[in-house]
Please model this.
Amino acid sequence: MDRLSERPVNIDVGTGYELPEPHSASDLVEVERGTPAGELLRRYWHPFALAADASDVPRPVKVLGEDLILFRDGSGRPGLVHHRCCHRGTSLYYGKVEERGIRCCYHGWLFDIEGNTLEMPCEPEGGQHLERYRQPWYPLVDYHGMLFTYLGPPQLKPAFPTYDVLSDVAEGWEVVADDNNIGLHGDPTPCNWFQTHENVMDPFHVYVLHAGFSGNQFVAEMQSLPEVSWHFTPHGVKSHQDRELDDGRFFHRVTEVLMPNVRIVASPFVEHEGQATSVAWTLPISRTETKIFTILKRPIGSPSRRASYGGKRWEELTPSEHQQMPGDYEAMVGQGPVTLHSEERLASSDRGVVMFRHRFRECLKQMAAGEDPPAVSYDAQVQAARYEVRAGNYIGDRDEVISRG
Model:
């Protein structure tokens, strides 16, 4: 008789043995060229470095799984080119930056910031048909000291997006570009971008996870469990987190995600009432590496506020302390390099995550149907498309503050 037919009546079910083969949702996690999600991402501008990172020393960078070289020529113009020289394939990491561009170390071909071949020293007359050879390159925009690039089809390049909170700068304030990432010394977070980005639409993790090290959710205004609602917007998804404060005021907090990877989150320290003062982007470096880039507005000379873990900064914690006081990094990286979506058991508090995934998949369907993705402008008269931020910390009369967010 088969041993399974002899099993006892009172048997445990739901053990790990019964799990099906786990898998990830490929349509959410792909970033490579030619994949649906990778092509969607390539229809938008992405930050990838600080303007100060571009110098006369070639700098390797990776964006959406592509290995690239960043440099600044002798005229001060930044350039972003493919790392392999179009001639014989050696890396331009070993190239020499000159007045007009970057010169390959192998045979001396010189390329400008748009990949045009300027010199071919070993060819007759220095190259008789320079126009036939071009180094792959990508366009750049310097926005408040942050470098952005567009990696998609050239004929579909959209207007560059700008944000009202970064344009309207009062006297005594400044706009700062910041590449400090979630993790040690700003190194890439070793997991897929999507599992970090959808976290923005999970306000309940703030109440549970962050309390493990901050005690009262950073400040008293954030300490109670909020009433949460989620809403689709023309550009993505937003959440409302509402609290009645002890002094009778109403605290209306709004968080936004714009397609595909913009995150606008007001400060959890609630230093200022009103619109959020920063805009951030979740950059997929590769399928298993992510980095957050932020542009923020702040009073000149004000110190940066960071979460405290038992009086220490995150990078100062021991392995044991990381285990005892996990934060966003541990929770996201703890899902693995690419989370296994088949293993999830979503509940009502995950509604924002579900809505963002739905919105992302809608965008994939639009792309497959030949439609333009949301939150882009192709107006030939517009060089930069301006977005009005709704995210923020709004405190006061209930009806008045809700109308603002």
Observations:
- Residues 158-301+315-404 form a domain with the Naphthalene 1,2-dioxygenase Alpha Subunit; Chain A, domain 1 fold (CATH 3.90.380).
- The two ends are 68 Å apart (CA to CA).
- The longest strand covers residues 289-299.
